[in-house]
């Protein structure tokens, strides 16, 4: 598939996906969502890619939301379908068997905040702004914002943000646990790529299993989570990397993971 609204670059084991509609502050229309779906599906299957960075083109925005001009004339059935499509694409990212880091370089509003939340880790530039402003359009978040925001920041803070539609800055987002790190906007991409490379250098199976288990927190209780963890922990011992990691430690050398 040829991409018109996103850019894909790969350097070593890290792929960078850039939403590229700066004229509309990288708003997500159907075409962009379909390209993201295609791109993440392929990256998920590509063995040479071990970590992915998602960002937005231009100085101003990561993603300023779902495209309002695309949504304005939707009927209720179409809007419901659009929300479901968003869930499908963002779940693909959230459940991809490799880490995805959002490098939030400006406005992350509505669907933009929601796609950032579908990523594993969020690094924000100090000029980034976050919010779920849907209330000001007469709607609610529709790409799982009511669910992912609540899980990340708790019910009270999610209600404050969703009821008011107010934006918060990067440091406020850090304080409430919506992002994991804030850096200067000049340092953003280097920091995101450095982190992606660091994770890409770790053994693959434990990363995949850890992601599945941490995501499973949303679905299962403590007891079932511990059962799953035990199974996955055992599974690690069937890998070469476990033997290598432990042998390297015991012999006081650096591990050479496959
Ligand atoms: N959709 C479409 N176009 C957009 C969007 C958007 N979300 N955001 C910005 N643009 C466009 C503007 O229309 C403008 O285009 P033009 O130059 O042709 O007039 C261009 O981008 C630049 O934007 P501004 O001139 O507005 O730039 P400012 O710096 O003045 O303002 C803001 C920046 C504050 C980010 C402002 O653009 C804004 O408020 N944008 C909308 C933010 C928003 O409300 N986002 C949420 C959208 S709803 C959503 O995401 C729901 C997701 C779930 C959907 C599922 C429902 C079924």
UniProtKB/TrEMBL annotation:
Family assignment from sequence similarity: Belongs to the enoyl-CoA hydratase/isomerase family.
Domain of life, per lineage: Bacteria
Name this protein carries in UniProt: short-chain-enoyl-CoA hydratase
GO MF assignments: 3-hydroxyacyl-CoA dehydratase activity
Listed InterPro entries: ClpP/crotonase-like_dom_sf, Enoyl-CoA_hyd/isom_CS, Enoyl-CoA_hydra/iso, Enoyl-CoA_hydra_C
EC number assigned by the record: 4.2.1.150
Subunit structure: Homotetramer.
Swiss-Prot/TrEMBL catalytic activity: a short-chain (3S)-3-hydroxyacyl-CoA = a short-chain (2E)-enoyl-CoA + H2O
Pathway info: Lipid metabolism; butanoate metabolism
Keywords in alphabetical order: Lyase
One GO BP: fatty acid beta-oxidation
A Pfam family hit: ECH_1
Record flagged with keyword Lyase: yes
